[in-house]
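Hey everyone, long-time lurker, first post.

I ran two proteins through the pipeline my lab uses and got sequence/structure pairs for each. Pasting them in order. The first:
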Amino acid sequence: MEYEVVDAQVSPIGRMEVLSRAEAAALSDHGSGGLREVFRNCALAVLNCGNELDDGRELLARYRSFKVEIVQRSRGIKLDIQGAPASAFVDGVMIRGIQEHLVSVLRDVVYARHELGGCDGGRFDLASSAGITDAVFHILRNAGVVQPIDTPNMVVCWGGHSISREEYDYSKRVGYQLGLRGLDICTGCGPGAMKGPMKGATIAHAKQRLANARYLGFTEPGIIAAESPNPIVNELVIFPDVEKRLEGFVRAGHGFVVFPGGVGTAEEILYVLGILLHPDNAGTPFPLVFTGPANSEAYFRQIDDFIGTVLGPEAQKLYQIIIDDPIAVARATQQGIAAVRAHRKETGDAYYFNWLLRIQHDFQQPFRPTHANMRKLSLHKQQPVHRLAANLRRAFSGVVAGNVKNEGILAIEQHGLFEIHGDPAIMGPMDVLLASFVEQGRMKLPGSDYHPCYKVVPVSA
C-alpha cells in the first residue's frame, strides 16, 4: 500500500536555530553511534501525528524512503525532508505545532548525545542516583520546562493510547474541569488518554482567558513511534530512555491522575507506588487519583486488587479511586496540590522540580528488556516492597517493548516469547491482570490482532 508523502524544506521554530559543526556532522554521520538513526526515527514519529499506528517497526516500513538532512547556512539551519507523511502538512505547509515538535526532537537528541554521554562521555555521573536526577533536571531546563513559578499547577495525566470512545470522552471532561481551575497538563504526549485531558483543558483555559497555558509532553525514542505526539502539546521533551522519562514526570508534576490504560499505565503506577513506598518518602504529599467512567470501575477495582495482593494495603493507601465524577477528581487534585505547595514551602523545596523526593538507583537504571534480563527479574516477596515494585515495573516495561517498540518486536520474532519467572503468589495475579488487558483490547489499538509477547512462569522457591 502506498502512503501519500511530501518533500519540504523547513526552518526551525524556536530556540534550536543553530548547531555547531560537530553536532551537525554527528547528525549526518551514519556511523556516529546511531545518532542519525535516532534523529530520523523520532522525526518520522513526530511527522506521523494523527495517523493511528502503535507499531514502531510498521511505521519505519511504511515510510522506508523518509529522509531528513541538516542543511547548514550562514543564517542558521534548515531541515531538508523527503518522503514525509502528508498528514503533517496543510496545502504543502507543515503544521506549526508539528514544526515545533521537530525542533524539540533535534534539541533533545543533540543534548542527550553531547551532554549525557555517548561515545565521547558526558558531564553527568550516570552511575549515581544524584547524577541521574541532575541529568533529568538539565534535560528539562534545556527544554525550557523548568521555570520559576509562584503556584504549583502541573497535573500529570497517565493512561492508555488504546481506550474506548467513552473513556476518551471522560478524560476530556476531567481535563476540562482541571483547566477551569487553572491547572496545566502533562502527559506522555500521544493519543487516547494522553490527548483527551489536553483537549478538555484547552477549551477550559480559553473560557477562563488563561494565556500561556502549558501542555507538556514527555516521551522517549523507544515509544515515540507508537505514540506520536499530538499537536496540542506545546512543550515536547524527548528523554533518552523510559526511566528518565518517568523520573521527569514525578519531578515536574504536582498532582497525578491515572485514566484507564494497559500495561504501560500499569508500569507507571508501579513506578510511582514503588517510590512512595520507600521509607524516606513517607509523609510526602503526592496527590494520586485513579479515575474513569462508570464502565471502567471494574478495571480499577482489578488494578486495586492486584496492588493489594502483591504490594499490600500500605500501597493501596497511597491513592484514591474516583469513578465517573470529573468535578470530584479536579477538586481532589487541586486540594492535593495545595498540600504539595505548603510542604515545599515549609521544606524549602522548589515548586518547579521535586528535588526532595527520594528515587532509588534501581528505579533509575535503564532496563533493557532482553529475554535473559526478563527471565532473571527478581519477582518474589522476600525483599523490601519498594524493590519488588521496581522489578515489577521492569517486567511490565518489557511487555510494553514486546508490544510496540521496534527492538522488542524484533526480539520476540527472533527468540520467541519473553518469559516472566517468579513467585506463584505474584505470577498468578499478574497473569490475571495481563489477560484482562488482552481481553479488554488494551494492548493494541482497536481493530488490531494482538498476539501476546510474554509467558508468565510461576516458579516455587
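...and the second, right after it:
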Amino acid sequence: MNKVTVIGGGFAGVEAAKQLTRRGVPVRLYEMKPVRFSPAHKSEKLCELVCSNSFKASRVDSAAGLLKAEMERFGSVCVAAAKETAVPAGGALAVNRDEFSALVTKEIESDPLIEIIREEVPAIPDDGVVIVAAGPLASDLLSADIERRYGARLSFFDAAAPIVTAESVDENFAFVQSRYEKGGDDYLNCPLNKEEYERFYEALVSAERVILHDFEKSGVYEGCMPIEVLASRGHDAIRFGPMKPVGLRDPRTGHRPWAVLQLRKENREGTLYNLVGFQTNLKFGEQKRVFNLIPALHDAEFARYGVMHRNSFLKSPGLLGPDFAVINDPRVFFAGQITGVEGYMESASSGILAGINAARHVLGQTPFVLPETTMMGALSRYIADETAKDFQPMGAAMGLLPPCETKIRDKKERYRLLSERALAAVEESIKTL
C-alpha cells in the first residue's frame, strides 16, 4: 500500500497520521523543523505550542470541553497527551508545554507505520493521497504553490470582527431593516443615541490593544482597518464609517439613530451574527467590556472575538467539503488552521476527520461526515458552508450547533442538553466506521 503524505507535524498533522495508521495505512510525515523554523516556532519537537499552554475549558457542557470529549471518542493523541501532562489551571485543561510536545513526539516516532522526514515540502505532490496540515504559518514556497493551484483562495492575515450568538442579542434594542428598505432581513441593526455613542466611543479609543509580533506588523491593516484605529482619527469617523445610520429609521422612535452597529448573519442557520465592520485588535476582555456598551449587546455572548494577526488560511467554502477533501481533487485533503478552524484542539479535531477520510479514500470507502449536531461536525460544515459571505476562521462555539427543539432560557441547562445530544450523535456515527 502506498504511503499517504502528511505535510506538517503540528496538532492536525499528528492526529491525521494516527488515524491513518490505525486503519493500516502507512504515512510519510513531513516536518520542516529543524531544517527551517517559522517565525513563531523554536522547538524541534512535534506539536509545539507557540502561544498559550491552555486548551480552554474542561467542562463537557462548554464548547471547548465538548470538542475535547468528542475527540476522545476517536482516540485523540493530543487530548490524551494533554491529560497526562496537565498542570493546575482551574476549570481549564492546561499543560506543561515541553512535556506535552515530547509525549506527542514520542507517540508518533514509536509508530512503525509512520516515517518522519525532516525537510520542507515546497509544493503539494502531484500524485498519491496528501494531507496538507501546514498550520497558520505555512512556508512561502508551499503557500505560493497552494495559490497557484487554487487561485486567490489563500489569505495571509486573519482580520476578523467579533461574532455573537443570535439568542444573546437583546432585540428590544434592535430592529431588522436594510438601508433605504432595499434588501431582506440580512441585517439586524443596533442603534445608539448620542449619549450612548459618546460613552461607547470614549471606551473604544481608550481600550487596551494586543501587541503584535514583529512578523505580523506588515500588511495586517492593508485591507481593513481596526475599528479602534479608525475611531482614533476623529470623534465621528466611525459614525461616518461602519456605524453610519444613513438610510435607517428606528421604528421605536420614528427617527434616524445617532449611530448604528449592523449585525449580519454569519451562518445558514442564523444562530450567529457578525459585527459588521468591527474588525479589531483589542484584547479579548476589552472587546467584551466595550462592545457590551452597545444597548442590544449588553449581555452578548461572544462565539469568537475579533482578531488581527498573521494567519494563513484558505477561503475553504467552495474549495473543501466537510470531509476536508478538495472538492475537485479528492486525493488532496487539508487540515488544521489553514482550513479556517481556529485553536489548538480545533486544528487537531480537523486532523482527525481528515485522517479518517484520507484512509477511507485509500481503502475505497465513502467519506465520513459527522452530523451538524456535533461540535466536530459543526466546525467541518462551517468551513464548507458556501453561503458564507465573508469567511473568517472560527473556533468551537455552542452557537455553531443547531438549537434545541424546545427553546431553553437557562444557558447552563441548554448547553448540557446540546452536549448530551452531540456525544450521543458521535457515538452513533462511530458505529458506522
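Reply from user beta_strand_b:
Welcome! Quick read of the second one: Confidence is low (pLDDT under 50) at residues 215-223. The CA atoms of residues 266 and 389 lie 8 Å apart.
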